Amino acid sequence: VQLQASGGGLVQAGGSLRLSCAASGRTFAKYGMAWFRQAPGKEREFVSAITWFGGSTNYADSVKGRFTISRDNAKNTAYLQMNSLKPEDTAVYYCAAGNYGLTTMIQHYDYWGQGTLVTVSS
Length: 122
Known about the structure:
This protein is 0% helix and 52% strand. The protein is an all-beta fold. Strand 5 (45-50) and strand 6 (57-59) form a beta hairpin.
C-alpha cells in the first residue's frame, strides 16, 4: 500500500482543515488507518485511528471533540477533519496503515505517507 497525504496549509487559530490520505492498491480496505503528527523538535505522536470497516475510532485526548477521522473504502481514501485548530496543532501530519486495530503505537503501522504540513497561527 502506498499512501499520499494532502490538505495541509496555513490556517488561523479556530479555523478548520481537512486532510486526505489517498492509498494505492486494492488492499486498502483491509487496513486500519491512522494519523500521527510531529511538531518541530518533538517526537511523532498518535492523533487518531479508524478500523478497516470504519466502525470504530480512537483519538488522542488533545484532539478529542475537535478532530474527526473517517474513510471511504470505495475511494481508497482516509480523512482527518480538524476543527477549532490551535497553534499547538502545528505539525507535519502523517497517515499510516496497519493491521493492529486502533493501536497508538508507531511500530504497529507498516505503511506511511510522506506527511503534510499544518501551520496554525495565533
